[in-house]
Automatic annotation (TrEMBL):
SUPFAM superfamilies for the chain: P-loop containing nucleoside triphosphate hydrolases
Keyword check for Transmembrane helix: no
Alphabetized GO MF terms: ATP binding
Gene3D superfamilies xrefs: P-loop containing nucleotide triphosphate hydrolases
Superkingdom in the source lineage: Bacteria
Protein's UniProt name: ABC transporter ATP-binding protein
Keyword entries, A-Z: ATP-binding, Cell membrane, Ion transport, Iron, Iron transport, Membrane, Nucleotide-binding, Transport
Any Pfam family the entry gives: ABC_tran
Length: 279
């Protein structure tokens, strides 16, 4: 059984249709990455998976059950969500934020427990934030703040993690730091991770399963090395490119056509195709 699935799913805002009659399965225990041009419906689709957007038609299944028929706490015990650009009250510490991840387990008759505390400490340790737990979240660097939010989702102790552009506004080093963390979580604990990413080359490096969203549905899906082609990039992003191979990981690398500074002198200029022979 797939961790998440969409059945005849249609989504939109008002009279504007964003996703139309979509069938999609998210494989369990893998990292799935949604890619596509701006406004194609990636984040809208993720919002529907998180039950933050009610479908116009169709349904979303979580572990084989319609999320529309599950209670909020029941969903929250199986799936954690990190939206794009989350906000929080000023002055909240890292520890206070991470403890919010245990909210689904609190009831009138069962308040904070040793298990809650253990999960919070484990989340801080995994994200390397133990020494920052008493620091206000808004005093941290961008990468540390994002790790704090991820720690909160980990404290929630769910099999499925949904993350909408988790590397937005981060520099290159912090992008890799966050994606390495998520990759390690997947490898160590077999968590099902679904992300929206804009950086196609990083998406190719970390994804087991890639889904290209286009024209209100799925253009193609599968292993990055299977679906990332010049044709797909042209049709999904409206851009010409060359496809090479990452020297370190063997995954696809997209090199877009366009203008730019050329270092070689005129007689030595090489085309993108010629340069790719070096990969």
């Amino acid at each position: 059984m797939d961790a998440l699935a969409a059945q005849a799913l249609s989504l939109g805002y008002g009279d504007s249709a964003i996703i139309d009659n979509l069938d999609l399965q998210i494989p369990r225990g893998q990292i799935s990455v949604l890619i596509g041009s701006n406004g194609c419906g990636k984040s809208t689709l993720l919002r529907s998976f998180a039950r933050l957007l009610k479908p116009a038609q169709g349904s979303v299944l979580l572990n084989g059950r319609s999320i529309a028929q599950m209670s909020t706490k029941e969903v929250a015990k199986q799936m954690a969500v990190l939206p794009q650009g989350p906000t929080l009250p000023e002055g909240l510490t890292v520890l206070q934020l991470v403890r919010l991840g245990r909210y689904p387990y609190q009831t009138l008759f069962q308040q904070w427990s040793e298990e809650d505390e253990r999960k919070v400490m484990q989340a801080l340790r995994v994200t390397d934030l133990e020494e920052f737990k008493e620091r206000p979240v808004d005093s941290l660097s961008g990468g540390q703040r994002q790790r704090a939010w991820i720690a909160m989702t980990l404290a929630q102790d769910t099999e499925v993690l949904l993350l909408d552009e988790p590397t937005t506004y981060l520099d290159m080093a912090h992008q890799v730091e966050i994606l390495d963390l998520l990759f390690e979580l997947n490898q160590r604990e077999q968590r099902t991770i679904v992300m929206v990413l804009h950086d196609l080359n990083l998406a190719c490096r970390y994804a087991h399963h890639m889904i290209a969203v286009h024209n209100k549905g799925v253009h193609s899906q599968g292993l990055p090395e299977e679906i990332v082609t010049k044709t797909m990039i042209r049709e999904v992003f409206g851009m010409e490119c060359e496809i090479g191979t990452d020297l370190l990981f063997g995954t696809p690398v997209c090199i877009p056509h366009g203008k730019g500074r050329v270092i070689a002198s005129a007689p030595e200029k090489k085309s993108s195709r010629e340069l790719l022979k070096a990969f």
